Amino acid sequence: MSEHTVANWRLVAARAERGWQTQEDFTAAYDDKARELREQARISVRQVRRWESGESTWPNRDARRVLEAMFGCPLEDLGFRRPARRRPGESEEKLEGCDVRRRTFLGLAGAAPVLDLDALDHLTAAAHGARRYGERELLGYLRAALDDAARADGLAGPHEALPTVLGILTAINSAARTAAPDLRRELLILGARGAELAAWLHRDAGVPERAVVYWHHQAKEWATLTGDGAMHAYVLLRQAQATDRTDPARMLDFARAATTGPWTLPPRPRAEALQQQARALALIGARVEEVARTLEQAHNALGQAAPRAGPPPAPARSATVTPTSASWCRVRSATARPARANGPSASSAST
């Protein structure tokens, strides 16, 4: 990447959100849409690479029509920059250079990327299948970048962290295709963690539910492929927490699956899953005794958790609910109400 280009993470994020995880997938989808629109122009993976790397900042007329039809939004929302009008005697090369410099400034000043330019260069190179960096070095960069993105969510919110997380997932998916088996497994373990974070960031950002569902499924797929049962169960817990209170039966299914499947959750997330079960039971009108018993199991699980080492973690918008949260207290208060003679339920008290 040259010093005057900035990776177009908006396009990468939009592509990934719609399920086109690789540049090859996106190219095929573009060609299908072009045929549907009866456009003759086709694109190559190389052209997608130029768009996503920032080397090309404004598609031609035919490509613009296809892209707008695919994404249903103006190209500016995808990170493209409309070139300035050419002055008399001004060359196209000079015009393109000015546009690239303007886009660089806006990208650095407005987006305030989590990663510095060197790290972005590594991620972009990884997403494009470059092999000049050591495999272990690449894994270290991706892991550190994902940690930084999670911290950025806590400090600035999902809109700050999401483009970086999606860029990291693109890099992981691309690198895993050609990695040796042992490294591929480590990449997919990291990918499952990143996909779960992407799902929660989408939910926190208020995007359509299908994006949240997609990334939850991707996280579970990678966790299954790597035999990471604890991560699979953790994603089920997150799905329970993401389920709207208007569908408590589904919430209960997810929470129970997290604690009863062929996997073992560590004590702290197990306590959260049991808490979510209690909340769902209260919402569906279960007896107070059943809700109280489930809360007691959650309390016992939390008591088995090792104390957190070091200082408390930075607050994160995507942090999971803990048994000291408001929702826990609401369910606990529901079970503390006096029982009625006809056998009370907890549903009315949980709201």
TL;DR of this structure?
The protein is mostly helical and 351 residues long.
Top keywords for this entry?
mainly alpha, disordered N terminus, single chain, 351 residues
Q: Could you please describe the fold and organization of this structure?
A:
- Helix 2 (23-36) packs across helix 4, helix 12 packs antiparallel against helix 13 and helix 14 (288-303) crosses helix 15 (326-335).
- This protein has 351 residues and is an all-alpha fold.
- Helix content is 66%, strand content 0%.
- It contains 15 helices and no strands.
- Residues 1-5, 92-123, 125-132 and 311-351 have low confidence and may be disordered.
- The chain has helices spanning 9-17, 23-36, 45-53, 61-71, 92-111, 117-127, 135-156, 158-178, 181-205, 209-225, 229-242, 248-260, 267-284, 288-303, 326-335.
- The protein is elongated, with a radius of gyration of 24 Å.
Distance between the termini: 53 Å
Radius of gyration: 24 Å
* Mass-distribution shape: elongated
Q: Which parts are unreliable, with pLDDT below 50 for 5 consecutive residues or more?
A: 1-5, 92-123, 125-132, 311-351
Tell me the β content: under 5%
Listing every helix as H and every strand as E from the N terminus to the C terminus, the arrangement reads HHHHHHHHHHHHHHH
Counting DSSP H or I runs of 4 or more residues, the number of helices is 15
**Main sheet overview:** none
The count of DSSP E runs of length 2 or more, i.e. the number of strands, is: 0
Mean pLDDT: 75
In terms of structural class, how would the helical and strand content be classed?
mainly alpha
Share of helix, binned: 55-70%
